[in-house]
Amino acid sequence: MWFVSIRYCPLFGFVPTMSANSGTESTNGSSNSNEAQKPQIEPLRLPTVEEIRGQDIWNNCAVRSVVSGVMGGGLGLFMGLFLGALDNPIMQEEMTGRQQFIYTAKQMGRRSWNSCKTFAVMGLIFSTAECVVEKVRAKHDTTNTVVAGCVTGGALSAKGGPKAACAGCAGFAAFSVLIEKFLDRHD
């Protein structure tokens, strides 16, 4: 009885071969191990027109900055709601349950709005600075993150004077590098 098997040939790739019944068990084991060792090569897939358009839109610094600002605002909103709920009123023993609820709801609203604004501005500044530096340098590396972190930290703490701006620049740049290394975005 004849069997058709497929073997790997370095010159022609995978080639069908015919073999007789005798000794097929011993040769099949070695050919299967050779086939298992060879990696499967997948064909190259070119991006579609929609994927290219989407990438062009996302590479626009204005779009990226606005999206980062909105996402930062959303994160700040949820963080403010969470942290506002943890606030205990100073005169908790003297307040009724209804008064405590109203106080906590107001505190959550204030905290969430303030956090929303802060995180939105932070995301907007950081994303804009990183995108502009990346476009100017024509490189995608950690230096962009350091500069963007420094600009963001300095801008957010500029009201406190030059010392505060320098400390904010150094602190936010260091934090950005730590996050960058943690996420390992650049090779």
Report on the architecture of this protein.
The protein has helices at residues 24-37, 49-58, 61-86, 97-137, 142-156, 162-183, and strands at residues 2-9, 13-20. It is mainly alpha-helical and 187 residues long. Among the domains are: 60-137; 141-186. β1 and β2 (13-20) form a beta hairpin. Mean pLDDT is 82; it is low at 23-27. It is found in: Mitochondrion inner membrane. Residues 22-43 are annotated as: Disordered. The chain crosses the membrane at residues 66-86. Residues 22-36 have a biased composition (Low complexity).
User: What are the secondary-structure elements, in order, as H or E?
Assistant: EEHHHHHH
Helix content: 55-70%
Secondary-structure-based class equals mainly alpha
Which oligomeric state applies?
Answer: single chain
Q: On the 0-100 scale, what is the average pLDDT?
A: 82
- State Rg: 30 Å
Biggest sheet, strands in spatial order? 1-2
Tally of contiguous helical segments: 6
Secondary structure tally: strands: 2
Parts with pLDDT < 50 across at least 5 consecutive residues:
23-27
Main sheet: strands, sense, barrel = 2 strands, antiparallel
Strand content: 5-15%
Task: Give the overall form.
Answer: elongated
How far apart, in Å, are the first and last alpha carbons?
Answer: 55 Å
